[in-house]
Amino acid sequence: MRILVTGAAGFIGAAAAHVLLARGDHVVGIDNMNAYYDVSLKQARLDRLLPQARFAFQAIDIADRAAMQALGEHEHFDAVLHLAAQAGVRYSVTHPQAYFDSNLLGFGHVIELARQCRAGHLVFASSSSVYGANSRLPFSEHDNVDHPVSLYAATKKANELMAHAYAWVHGLPCTGLRFFTVYGPWGRPDMSPFLFVRAILAGEPIRVFNGGQMERDFTYIDDIVEGVVRILDRPPVPGTAADLASPATSSAPYRLFNIGNSEPVRLLDYIALYERALGRSAVLQMEPLQPGDVVATAADVHDLEAATGFHPATPVAEGVHRFVDWYRHYYRVT
Predict the structure, then answer these.
(1) Which ranges of the chain would DSSP assign to H, the alpha helix?
(2) Of 9, 150, 275, 290, which cross-links 46 as Cys (Cβ 3.0–4.6 Å)?
(3) Are 224 and 301 in contact (CB under 8 A)?
(4) Which of 47-51, 242-246, 256-260 bottoms out in mean pLDDT, i.e. has the lowest?
(5) Is 135 exposed, middle or buried (0-12, 13-18, 19+ CB in 10 A)?
(6) pLDDT band at 334 (very low <50, low <70, confident <90, very high)
């Protein structure tokens, strides 16, 4: 297949591109290489992809309408894997325009390109953040998600609605994937693994929100990519009118899936795993819950398993050790 991967220099995008290339697909990657976090890390991810014969890269911002239109006019894609976005719950509180530009305008350009190319499947990254104020755990795709508690979450819910409209009106097969706290080697420096390891090694305090009374469904990067690729190979087909009773299904070719480890870990226990992996103690600085944060996340992945036969299963302790080993090697620290 010939596949467009947006956000190809990003954490999940680069990892997915490697897997697609390894199985024989042709990948066109695009990324705007913005400075939300260290561009050198994005470039290092990209440098591992560029030598591969079936990979081509273009520096394109998905918010650039003319560039996206030109790409759609000159290329054909069997599938589009849309992973580019402005990430971060807390950043959305202070920099909302970045989310309007990338997650709304940019998403519109991507889905229009997919329609223009007559792609056989658009798979796009949503987020566990869409569950917002939902208090029933584990989170199910069949639950209502009309109460986001961050702008980031609201843009991801908007993407799901936009995709459903295109599936309904144009028959474009669309699948949204709600990722749960992705971590692992080559990850994002604004995420907890980087923040924890850096602080522990430097003997600096870790900011522990909500007094540590938080749980997250940490999901290892390899499990995320395995789920992504399996879903990419399974475009949704139109269902029945009864499917309209659930937000996760439709009589249009549209589906939603959670991808999570399904084993939430207490924040303080998660920090303890890094302490053990590093052989050092953390200094904890207790702080209140931050705007946009939720206390707990947990993924119901029964639908993912039924559709693909896959259930994420990398133990968090193992994933933490892999990340720490990678971090020491990449940053040359002991």
Answers:
(1) 11-22, 39-49, 65-74, 91-94, 96-99, 107-117, 151-170, 192-202, 221-232, 267-278, 302-308, 316-331
(2) 9
(3) no
(4) 242-246
(5) exposed
(6) confident
- 83, HSE (Cβ side, Cα atoms, 13 Å): 28
Strand 2-6 relative to strand 79-82: parallel, antiparallel, unpaired?
parallel
pLDDT at 135 over 90: no
* Tokens representing residue 37 in the block: 């976090």
Structure tokens at 280: 């050092």
Give φ, ψ of 305 to 5 degrees. Answer: -65, -40
Instruction: Check if the beta carbon of residue 179 is closer than 8 Å to that of residue 81.
Output: no
Name the nearest CA neighbour of 250 among 129, 169, 332: 169
Point out the catalytic residue in the list 131, 152, 220, 270. Answer: 152
Residue 1 β-bridge partners:
none
Other C-beta atoms lying within 10 Å of the C-beta of residue 136: 10
Give the pLDDT of residue 173: 98
CA distance 317 to 3: 33
Concatenate the DSSP letters of all residues of 24-61 into one string.
Answer: T-EEEEEE---SSS-HHHHHHHHHHHTTSTTEEEEE--
Query: Per-residue confidence at 81, pLDDT binned at 50, 70, 90?
Result: very high
